[in-house]
UniProtKB/TrEMBL annotation:
One of its GO terms (cellular component) is mitochondrion. This is Uncharacterized protein. It comes from Strongylocentrotus purpuratus (Purple sea urchin).
């Protein structure tokens, strides 16, 4: 369950929400527009995993090295996503830890090094952790939005599994999507997790990248064959900042393998290269959040 709830800028911050085996992450729930005459239970839930540098406004605007990127706070990103998905419930899963309030580390989803680059693709129960995070977060705040019948029946935590799911990773946040893909086949043996996975309609990789040795994009054929069985649409949005990095040429190569192999295996995948003819730019890297 969540150990604390804070209201900020029309969104809820749920601190230390419990997931798998007492792992905890802080989640942000955006406000939501309700369709006229429609149900107040969301038809769609959008889950976003932020990247390095991104942080709460109160931290980012005072950070000596990163304050120039204050346009990309957690709060502003939630607002951008709400505009992109006006009737969806936006949920941001923040990193378990941040080094120097800069480097995002998703240790609760995979094994990572000190600066948050993945060091293993072995099973870390990432799907079960995500499912329980969302379920327990909704139990904490959902009663005010749910029908009385669900509250009385004690099924409030099932709301998020009744809505469709869209998963989005930005930059370092894409490591979580990758880990979920590596664990997909094993996770489907769990009936509760399988039901959760079947709700996924779309996955977005937004300019993924990290400095570790684990591939930036999934390239293993066995894993990709399994991924292609998902009844979901895959979206990949990149910029030259990542895929044209001369110091990390493998990112561009892995990106192309990921796309071409998924197409080969029959997946519904759409890829976009933004700022194609422009030089590498961290500013343009962040702007993909608004462009996808």
């Amino acid at each position: 369950m969540a150990s604390g709830e804070i209201e900020t800028n029309r969104m809820k911050v749920l601190e230390k929400v419990e997931g798998f085996e007492e792992r905890r992450n802080t989640l942000l729930f955006g406000s939501r527009k309700f369709p006229v005459g429609g149900s107040n239970v969301p038809a769609e839930t959008v889950v976003f995993f932020p990247g390095d540098v991104q942080n709460f406004e109160k931290i980012l605007k005072h950070h000596e090295a990163n304050q120039k990127w204050k346009e990309w706070t957690f709060e502003s990103t939630i607002c951008t996503l709400q505009q992109r998905f006006p009737h969806a419930q936006i949920v941001m899963v923040t990193p378990f830890r941040r080094v120097d309030e800069t480097f995002s580390c998703y240790d609760n989803f995979m094994e990572m090094d000190i600066l948050g680059s993945p060091v293993s693709i072995e099973c870390h129960h990432a799907w079960e952790h995500l499912r329980l995070l969302l379920q327990n977060a909704w139990k904490s705040i959902g009663e005010e939005q749910a029908p009385n019948s669900m509250v009385e029946a004690g099924t409030i935590g099932d709301i998020l599994t009744e809505s469709s799911l869209t998963l989005i990773g930005f930059s370092k946040g894409c490591t979580v999507l990758n880990q979920l893909m590596y664990e997909l086949e094993d996770a489907c043996s769990n009936k509760a997790v399988l039901a959760f996975i079947r709700r996924i309609e779309a996955l977005y990789w937004l300019d993924g990248g990290h400095v570790g040795t684990i591939p930036t994009y999934v390239t293993d054929d066995n894993v990709l064959r399994e991924i292609s069985k998902l009844k979901a649409t895959f979206y990949v949005h990149v910029t030259p900042y990542q895929v044209k990095d001369e110091g990390r040429p493998h990112i561009g190569e892995e990106h192309l393998q990921f796309i071409s192999k998924l197409m080969q295996y029959g997946a519904d995948i759409k890829s976009t290269l933004h700022f194609r003819d422009e030089s590498r730019s961290l500013k343009k890297h962040f702007e993909v959040i608004k462009l996808f």
